[in-house]
Specification:
The complex is a heterodimer of chains A (158) and B (187). Chain A folds into two domains: 56 residues; 101 residues, no CATH class. Helices cover 85% and strands 0% of the residues of chain A. Chain A contains eight helices and no strands. In chain A, helix 1 packs antiparallel against helix 2, helix 4 packs across helix 8 and helix 6 runs antiparallel to helix 8. In chain A, 43% of the residues are buried. Chain B has two domains: 58 residues; 109 residues, no CATH class. Chain B is 88% helix and 0% strand. In chain B, helix 7 crosses helix 8. The model of chain B has no long low-confidence stretch (mean pLDDT 87). Classes of the chains: A mainly alpha (158), B mainly alpha (187). At the A-B interface, helix 1, helix 2, helix 5, helix 6 and helix 7 of A face helix 1, helix 2, helix 5, helix 6 and helix 7 of B.
Amino acid sequence: MIALIINISAFSLLFFTFIQDKQKAQRSLKQALVKFVNLLPMMILIIIMIGLILGFIPPEVIRNYLGSDSNIIEIIVASLFGAITMIPSLVALPLAGSLIEAGASYTPVAAFITTLTMVGFVTLPIELKELGKKMTILRNIFAFLFAIIISLLIGVLL
Amino acid sequence: MEKNKVNQLDFKDKINKGLLNTIKYIMILTIIILSVWYFFPNKTNSALNISSKYGLEMITIFPAVLILMGLADVWIPKSLINKYLGDESGLRGIIIAMILGTLPTGPLYIAFPIAAELLRKKAKISNVMIFLGVWASLKIPQISVEIKFLGIKFATLRFILTLAALVIIGNLIEFIITKKEKKEVLN
């Protein structure tokens, strides 16, 4: 359903752009193609990883390690994992979905997604350069702490 | 014309680099899969079935998401962000920061220079922090992928909670950072 909505809006906007300005349409398609090709290796890797996780790791094991709604250590580990990894969030989301399918609880998955997107170890040098030490440290620490709160709330509410 | 040529080359280089990487990944993964398959043929078959199911699902949504991002790149000039976030404050400022952040215009490392530029133009720290957070975590095309793979309930809850958290974080940082420190950052 959501795929249909996104496809219809993307292609109608593309069509509209094409009528307005052919060059603009061309440029946007090139951009999209470059992004796609650059995402492709990670995408293939994640697709295979999802298969291996769901096919090989028994659900009991995943439930055991990622199945709790309130295990604070589990949540902190998931948050740390999200903060240091550099998976593009676009492909991390299907991976997160597969973990849920395999028996993980929403709480650690929410913590992972929140820190993956909001806390940036990899982008830290750029952030330090642009925003300075204090603002960068505050932003990342607060984002980390609030990721834990957000994930606990999602666990309670969902 | 000359510039066009350079862009053309740039484009081909980027595509080639991506394709080369893809081939490398495929080769390594094929070796891994074959060796796993040698020991556990049944489990590997079911793993590959699951993979192809997920692969198909990703293919139904990713091209459209990337086209939306490409379109945003050509339609939304970065100057728009400067123009609207630069001097708005109060609730209006917060709302503008949120809306501008959700626009599908590129990865986080582009947002940092924009944020620094906004601070230099005396935008409120809280609004700039909200803008950065929304940009990082709540982009519209990504939300659609989140809805597809994690469900609309999860995506909506995370969206609302993250938005609330960002407003709190923005104001906390605004409160902690003194004017003097803000000036030092920008010089």
